[in-house]
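Hi, here's the filled form for the chain we discussed.

Project: internal
Contact: R.S.
Residues: 346
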Amino acid sequence: MENALRPLIVLGGTVVLTLALGWAFDLLLRRAGHRHPETPLWGLLRRCGIPLQVLVLTSLLRGTYRETGWQVIEDYHTDIGRALSLVIIGAGAWLVVRVVSVVVESSYARYAATAADPARVRRVRTQVTLLMRIVIAAVVVVAAAAMLLTFPDLRSIGTSMLASAGIIGIVAGVAAQSTLSNLFSGLQIAFGDMVRIGDTVVVDGEYGVVEEITLTFLAVRTWDERRITMPVSYFTANPFENWSRGGSQVTGTVFLQLDHTAPVPLMRERLAEILAECPEWDGRDASLAVTDTTPTTIEVRAAVTAKDASDLWTVRCAVREGMVAWLAAEHPYALPRIGGEGADRR
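And the returned structure, exactly as it came back:
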């Protein structure tokens, strides 16, 4: 009877104790969340429940598994103990990553809720994202080294990974030069405030919004929903346009090639009417002027403003379409003609 009850007590007691600790942990966090609803940290920490329970369960089993008295466990206790140690290391790394992620996410959420400057919020978001990737990489390397230390034949490799060279030395020893260049470029972008997640940029002739920044690459979502993936080192070595730096408000232009007889004063009045009907125009500025002439045409430039690049695109299209349609209907003589003089002049 004792041989039958001992495994049940050891294994069942371990599971029950783990579940009880997990329930108590979740209960405390829920109560803390109710008492402090303004702080999202307590609710987010509940995500750590599963890795915590796995860590507690394997730790308890690691200390009590030989008490079951089973012969198969006694025969393979070394391998079983090593397997449990590996699970403990993995669960510990999982828990550390979850805790760091929750703390960072909670801090960022509170900052974003109180910050008045969207540009600073995007900057902090970029820095937080890259720092989290660095922390995860460091935890993974340390966990892998700790796992190697559990194997006698691989202990020297694990020791070298944790030697004084540190994480950067490990990465430098196994990574290619281009990877290292992108790694440090990613840090430079994050803390140099060159480009942030959500910024509108023009890179290599392509217009889009920065969607993701990692330690090695940067993804730009173009206006037609394409994704351009570029190494982050490109942004530290090549010029690019950042339309969001210093504020998201932008000014754009619309160029029209017209006949010399185009009614420029009336076009200025019509431009004001078109913009008054365009909700994307922010009302900051609008102007129309003749910027160039050729023997056959004049170049008319309309300058308009908007609160961001997306709205500016809409305003420019509205001005272009509205002006051409108005000229074609009211002043067709102002549109350029190729050959012949068949059109009536007014």
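Let me know if anything looks off before we file it.
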